Structure of Polyisoprenoid-binding protein:
Amino acid sequence: MTKSVWTVDKSHSSLEFTVKHMMISKVRGVFNDFEAVVEADPNDLTDAKIEFSVNINSIDTRNEDRDNHLRSNDFFDMENHPKMTFVATEIKKKSGNNYDVTGDLTLRGVTKPVTFDVTMEGVNKDPWGNEVAGFSGTSKLNRKDFGLVWNAALETGGVLVGEDVKINIELEAHKQA
């Protein structure tokens, strides 16, 4: 296969995160509005171009008060930084369909390198004859590295919000004609 442009089908894709809450449980959330363009040969992602943009306002943790707090200056500062972006800078094949995709993640005006463990899940044709590719990716980052430092101490010790944020991405992308 040659390099092609693939656009994300948001109705079959997800961008999820998990963070510890009160040091004993986890809060899960999603961003419902994001775009990604992948220019790649699905058989070899090492020279792919990957760009991702997330609308911070689309955060959804199934709790409106918490979502509004996350949008505020305490966390994402959405008013001044409405988007989170990721641009791949280096892609290394690990084995088979597994890759380390490193890139510049910009969040709240701070840009840092982040590496995702990505699996190219395969390519298939939909019932209408269109080529569709699937990608899965995971990463972990420390939110404080991006200026998301708000927290509250717990009476019993520890803090309300964990520092490590686990990210899970499932993408279905359609090959452009």
